[in-house]
Amino acid sequence: NLSKQVQIKEVGPRDGLQNEKKEIATEDKIEWINRMSESGLSYIEITSFVHPKWIPQLKDAVEVAKSIERKDGVTYAALVPNMKGLERAIEADVDEVSIFMSASESHNKNNINKSISETYPILREVVDEAKKAGKSVRGYVSTVFGCPYEGNVDEHQAIDVCDNLFNMGIDELSIGDTIGVANPVQVERVLSEFEKHFSKDKIALHFHDTRGMALANTVVALQLGYHIFDSALGGLGGCPYAKGASGNVATDDLAHMLQQMGLEQSIDLNKLQEAAQFIESKLDQPLPSKQMGISRRL
Ligand code: HMG
Ligand code: MG
After folding, report:
1. Assign residue 237 a region: left if phi > 0, alpha if psi is -120 to 50, beta otherwise?
2. What is the pLDDT of residues 10-60, one digit of tens each?
3. How far away, in angstroms, is 12 Cα from ligand 2 center?
4. Is the pLDDT of residue 239 over 60?
5. Which end of the chain has less Cβ packing within 10 Å, N or C?
6. In whole angstroms, what is the distance from residue 143 CA to residue 114 CA?
7. How far is CA 132 from CA 88, 126, 136, in A?
8. Does residue 15's CB lie within 6 angstroms of at least one atom of ligand 1?
9. Distance, CA of 294 to CA of 18 (rounded, Å)
10. What is the predicted ipTM?
11. Is 239 a catalytic residue?
12. Would you call 172 helix, strand, or coil by DSSP?
């Protein structure tokens, strides 16, 4: 089952930065993304076109997308909540747009201000128009492994939401452990249910590492034959002082593990670490990844 080349999808400039309180200069975001492009990553989610009142850190989305160097072979994606966001994403000419919603009603409402049933027609229009504009479309479903408001989420409820998104014509779907509560036994149970409905080639795993379980969860998913994983360089994201908030599994830790396992050969780990050191120098606190810890102690 471990034979496939694994793909890492870098989400740090979007998922990481959206949680970062300190305002990062636009030129620093651009340089960071350019450095990551040079490290061998093949997919970078560079920003989001959500309402700047909600996520002020990413209000420079169009400028970032227009100013980065586009390297051949790298897909540059961005998060889009609605038609207004899609218009900005098309203006900025990203390669792929990511739509998003939640498996649980209360997280969906808190995150995007709509019920689940109100969200579908909005996203359907975004998918249709994005396809007409020649963009591939990724979907995210949050709270698949647990919700901050509702606790456990029934996997059939999550599968139903995923089914509706695939029926819109999306190309891939990333299922989120939004608050980092998933454990390996649960991941095995949920993914075994998912494989009855969806191709493993179209499902990505999006593990946040709040409780240090993300790499263990990743190994379980690998053993089940899943091979697309989202991560954020250095483990960027979340606030160490805010209860429950934490970043994605760290790209540098994930890439290191996959290379040791013989499942990843494309990424230059030294260049990746330099890119992590670059963004860390712009932050107020050290990045939490193990690899960054090692590089600081050396
Ligand atoms: P709303 O207020 O319900 O939107 O927000 P609305 O459609 O009622 O519009 C209200 C006003 O906002 C209008 O302006 C719109 O033009 C404007 P007015 O006419 O009043 O002057 N507006 C926009 N402006 C710029 N860009 C836009 C946009 N849309 C409307 N795209 C909305 C609904 C979804 C926009 C809002 O709730 C929002 O932006 N939410 C952002 C939520 C977010 O970014 N969350 C984090 C990302 S999701 C995540 O992290 C999870 C994930 O990582 C997976 C996981 O870990 O589980 C993906
Ligand atoms: Mg996330």
Report:
1. left
2. 999 999 999 898 999 999 999 999 999 999 999 999 999 999 999 999 999
3. 9
4. no
5. C
6. 16
7. 15, 10, 10
8. yes
9. 26
10. 0.97
11. yes
12. strand
For residue 112, what are the contacts with CB-CB under 8 A and spacing of at least 6? 81, 100, 101, 119
* Cβ of 140 below 6 Å from ligand 1: yes
Report yes or no: 220 and 186 within 8 Å, Cβ to Cβ. Answer: no
- Interatomic CA distance for residues 99 and 93, integer angstroms: 16
Please tell me if the CB atom of residue 100 comes closer than 6 angstroms to any atom of ligand 1. yes
| Tens digit of each residue's pLDDT (9 = 90 or more) over 65-89 | 999 999 999 999 999 999 999 999 9
Residue 143 Cα distances to 178, 179, 181, 252, angstroms: 5, 7, 10, 24
Contact partners, residue 63, CB within 8 Å, separation at least 6: 26
The residue whose CA has the least distance to atom 41 of ligand 1 is: 50
Residue 186 has pLDDT above 60, yes or no: yes
Report yes or no: 176 and 209 within 8 Å, Cβ to Cβ: no
Do residues 126 and 99 touch, judged by C-beta distance below 8 A? yes
| Contact (CB, 8 A) for 268 and 284 | no
- Which token pair is 18? 């959206």
Measured between alpha carbons, how far is 186 from 221 in angstroms, rounded to an integer?
A: 11
47-72 burial by CB neighbour count: b if 16+ within 10 A, else e? bbbbeeeebebbbbbbebbebbeebe
Average pLDDT, the chain: 95
Q: Which residue has the tokens 């179209």?
A: 202
User: Which token pair is 151?
Assistant: 């606790």
